[in-house]
UniProtKB/TrEMBL annotation:
Organism: marine sediment metagenome
Gene3D superfamilies given in the database record: Type II deoxyuridine triphosphatase (1.10.4010.10)
Protein name: NTP pyrophosphohydrolase MazG putative catalytic core domain-containing protein
InterPro entries reported for this sequence: dUTPase/dCTP_pyrophosphatase (IPR014871)
Amino acid sequence: MFTNKMIVRIAWLQEQVKDKYPDDLILNHLITCTQVSKEVSEVLDCLPWKFERKMETVSREHLLEELVDVFRFYVRLLIIHNVTEKEFQEAFDSKSEIVERRLCNGKSMEECLREEISRKTADNN
């Protein structure tokens, strides 16, 4: 998912942060989490989430820009904590399986999908 160019750019940015707050893991973590929170708020502001506020259109360009900001700060958190791509992939897969089992009442996603396909096939017949 991460291209080398993305990793280089984000690592460079992280070095800039480390220059300001050298070897302070907790401060780097707190600053980045604050930035993530702010950017997620900006994503929310791109969407018509307030029922009393009329928003004619959602600017996909603006939404994408804010999502990129969120992504960059999440990747910075991975860099701050020295998480490798392999570690992240394994943790992602493990957590995904847990969430999928919750959503499928203890079954694997594959079992859940097979049941859904069988149900839809039966409904169409």
